[in-house]
Design a protein that fits this description.
- The chain has 16 helices and 24 strands.
- By secondary structure, it is α/β, with parallel strands linked by helices.
- It has 3 domains: 233 residues, P-loop containing nucleotide triphosphate hydrolases (Rossmann fold); 176 residues, P-loop containing nucleotide triphosphate hydrolases (Rossmann fold); 74 residues, no CATH class.
- The strands form 6 sheets. It has a 6-stranded mixed sheet with strand order 6-9-10-3-11-12, with helices on both faces. It has a 6-stranded mixed sheet with strand order 18-21-22-15-23-24, sandwiched between helices.
- A hairpin with a 2-residue loop joins strand 16 and strand 17.
- Helix 13 packs parallel to helix 14.
- The longest helix is centred in the middle third of the chain and has 16 residues.
- It starts with a strand and ends in an 8-residue tail after the last helix.
């Protein structure tokens, strides 16, 4: 047993995040801790890593009781954490990031030659291929995560915590990450995996703790359970299978004609044509980096296309501002909930108000009506089951999944004819995912149109009435629901042809 936590209690005001939680980890084991957003799984690992201090309870590492004042104390006994949001310096090289605070020096200066040699050897030892001289700003999300793992390994961690590690990864990157975890475990490292994605648990974990509302409600050996049981344990009820009935599409809400964009000397969008009508969900499938982000930014007004036209409810909005497009009937759930979707330092009330700050009943004579704003925020918190202390809580204090639910709630309450929804269920648990799906289907049935961009193929295939496939900035296929399977769609996403599947 490499660590044991006994009867851990952690309170945040009136909220009990961990209520006498006891867990342990064995050497060379992959332990998954799963649960809904707000179940307390991230809190227990923050306590283990020294980011939080418990109100009660004991922690033992290699049989010795420890008290952590900071992550530095945790690292000193061999505990490292790969956090959900990467902590890397964009302008520095991969090698410089890996050795940061533990630099290899020659006199007062960094010994670059020896640093590169050491980092290269480390990456080969653990099968994590990187270019040590590449700048972080030029790296994909998957490579950045490798850098985070190598940082931990460079510091000689024997216990590695992964907090929602696949939230920003493509399906292929997730597969590679899970294989890395298994390889690390075989080499004697002990892994804690915090996730709500059951296929990851079934693929990688040896043992599983299920948490619900601050308690450990079950412990299972992977070989003795399955996804259905784990889903039931997570939410406390049986999840119902959804039947989506076909319905006729209505009038055209969004029409994109011959949209093109150059960036960095290359064509990132090439002659893109698509449309979304009332009463339908249209999915865009594609491997990350094939133009989806740039397409959505052109549609929402964050980027100006080089050529082409964007029509919203028949009106040309190609050169309209973000505010003008929202006023014309476009809601938007961004891919990055913190960079584009919210003001992390703002309160929940302030974040739910975005887009309505100058409108009645929230504003009168240029002044916000704070009580009305807070009551509106509380209504959304209750309706969308956002686990929050109050409307005055800071967005940065929320778990990632609950922050996501609040953003989705805000955009859905816009009652816009068209909603562009990018990774709407990224980082949320199975219960919240099904709830968000139900709300999207409600909007569809009420006549709204939804353009859905998701790295989860199952989400695209389950919800979409039509699917566009993007590859290298082009639309390379369009399919009706049920006319293509997941494998054939994957082949197209990689530049193949449907016949190959």
């Amino acid at each position: 047993m490499v660590f044991e936590m006994k009867n851990i209690v952690k309170n945040y005001g009136s909220l009990c995040a961990n209520d006498h939680v006891s867990i342990h980890l064995n050497k060379g084991e992959i332990l998954a801790i799963i649960g809904e957003n707000g179940a307390g799984k991230s809190t227990i690992t923050k306590i283990l890593y020294g980011l939080e201090k418990p109100d009660e309870g004991e922690i033992f590492v290699d049989g010795k009781q420890v008290r952590f004042r900071s992550p530095t104390d945790a690292m000193a006994v061999g505990i490292g954490m790969v956090q959900q949001h990467f902590m890397l310096f964009e302008s520095m090289s991969i090698a410089e990031n890996i050795v940061f605070k533990n630099e290899i020096t020659k006199g007062p200066f960094l010994d670059r030659k020896k640093t590169i040699k050491t980092v290269t050897a480390l990456s080969k030892q653990y099968g994590l291929e990187i270019d040590p001289e590449a700048k972080i700003e030029d790296c994909s999300v998957g490579i950045r995560q490798r850098v985070e793992i190598l940082k931990i390994l460079y510091q000689n961690a024997n216990i590695i915590i992964f907090d929602e590690p696949s939230a920003v990864l493509t399906p292929l990157e997730v597969e590679a990450l899970l294989e890395t975890m298994k390889q690390l475990a075989k080499m004697g490292k002990s892994i804690v995996l915090i996730t709500h994605k059951l296929h990851e648990v079934i693929s990688a974990a040896d043992r599983i703790y299920v948490m619900r509302r601050g308690h450990v409600v079950a412990e299972r050996i992977k070989s003795e359970t399955n996804s259905d049981e784990l889903a039931y344990l997570m939410v406390g009820k049986q999840m119902e299978l959804r039947q989506i009935k076909p319905q006729p599409a209505g009038r055209q809400l969004l029409q994109v004609r011959s949209l093109s964009l150059m960036s960095g000397g290359r064509d990132v969008l090439r002659d893109v044509n698509l449309q979304v009508s009332a009463g339908e969900i249209v999915g865009i499938a594609g491997v990350s980096g094939n133009g989806q982000v740039e397409l959505i930014q052109c549609l929402t007004g964050l980027l100006k296309p080089g050529s082409g036209t964007v029509l919203l409810q028949g009106t040309d909005v190609t050169h309209s501002s973000v505010c003008q497009r929202r006023a014309a009937g476009m809601a938007y759930v961004p891919e990055d909930r913190y960079l584009w979707g919210s003001a992390p330092s703002g309160t929940l009330s302030e974040n739910t108000l975005m887009g309505k700050e100058s409108k009645e009943p929230f504003c009168k004579n240029g002044f916000l009506k704070k009580k009305t704003v807070e009551e509106y925020c509380q209504t959304l918190i209750s309706k969308y089951d956002v686990r929050a202390l109050s409307p005055r809580q800071r967005m940065s204090e929320m778990s990632g999944g609950n922050a996501q639910k609040l953003i989705v709630a805000r955009e859905m309450q816009m009652d816009a004819p068209l909603m562009i929804s990018c990774e709407p269920t990224r980082g949320v648990d199975i219960g919240a995912m099904l709830f968000i799906h139900d709300q999207m289907l409600r909007m569809r049935s009420e006549g709204s149109g939804i353009l859905l961009v998701s790295s989860e193929l199952s989400e695209i295939m389950t919800l979409s009435d039509r699917i566009y496939v993007m590859f290298e900035g082009r639309i390379c296929g369009e399919f009706q629901r049920g006319s293509i399977d997941e494998r054939a769609l994957g082949v197209l996403m990689l530049g193949g042809k449907k016949a190959d599947g």
